[in-house]
Amino acid sequence: MRPFSLGRLIITAYMVLFIVYLLAPLVVMGGAAVNNSRFPSIYPWVGLTGRWFGELWSDQQMWRALLNTVLVAVAVVVLSVPIGTAAALLINSVQSRMRSTLYGLMVAPILTPGAVIGISTILFWNKLSVPAGLHLSVLGQSSFISAYAMLLVLARLQSLDASLEEAALDLGASHAQVMRRIVVPHLYPAFGAAAVIAFFQSVENFNVTLFTGGNSSTLTVYVFSQVRAGITPKINALALIMVLITVVGVILYEVKRRQSERRLKVEQEDTLEDDVIEGLGLPQLTSPA
């Protein structure tokens, strides 16, 4: 039995309080989504109901906002990943003092407040007589989300063995072939991660979209407008659905990851067993047909 430790007790209590602090609002939100009360709360508990999910389902404005959100997010991914990849390749190829300067300039949009980016975007394009709309939301979001893609691609580039490129060039490959057959395949995981990050960064973005979206609204702007008009448990139902989708996605990903690890482990054990049998000169066992 472990001896009593005041430090261990404090750490355990802190972790419990931290987890409760994170989960308690989600529990209250989920309870309010199924409480038959006009006010979003769990006390007093009126009764279990699914009416708020029905009202959410019949809300056409919410569906339009959701469609706009997906369209904007996909467009942001299409713009941000190539821009971020190009920036990462440029920074990785520069070896002088300019590298730090370029890196700072390209990371700066992440540190810029969203309201500043939104106001700057709408003012700049108004000077060119371009009206506000979802197209400006895409451009405004891409201006800083591409920096996230750049960081992910740049981190992946650091693990690329430069000798592979040099060997390919020595063997007569062109720079385009090296890029297509060596660099790009190595960056596939970074492309996927950058696309996912860009998509969800766009979905949760509010400040830039609020200033640039014009008469069109995305899901975050829709929720903001509903809160201003008087929040109802319908918003709690929407939040609960989004949380459940996230949790299910995480569980499916973890299950798939563990299955892949088990499959890889079995393949490695089989390969090691075959190598041992071959090294000892023993006949391999084959299953009967």
Q: Can you offer a commentary on this structure?
A:
- This protein is mainly α.
- Among the domains are: 44 residues; 151 residues, Orthogonal Bundle (MetI-like fold).
- The chain contains twelve helices and no strands.
- The longest helix has 48 residues.
- It is globular, with a radius of gyration of 26 Å.
- The relative contact order is 0.12.
- It is a multi-pass membrane protein.
- One of its GO terms (biological process) is transmembrane transport.
- Keywords: Cell membrane, Membrane, Transmembrane, Transmembrane helix, Transport.
- Its main location: membrane.
- This is ABC transporter permease.
Give the helix proportion (percent range): over 70%
* pLDDT < 50 runs, ≥5 residues: none
Gyration radius, rounded? 26 Å
Put simply, the count of helices is 12
End-to-end C-alpha gap: 55 Å
Largest sheet: none
**CATH homologous superfamily grouping of the domain at 59-163 and 191-236:** MetI-like
| Average pLDDT score | 83
Q: What is the CATH top level name of the domain at 59-163 and 191-236?
A: Mainly Alpha
The strand count comes to 0
SS strand fraction = under 5%
In the CATH hierarchy, the architecture of the domain at 59-163 and 191-236 is Orthogonal Bundle
Structural class by helix and strand composition: mainly alpha
What is the overall shape?
A: globular
Q: Topology as H/E string? A: HHHHHHHHHHHH
**CATH topology (level 3) name of the domain at 59-163 and 191-236:** MetI-like fold
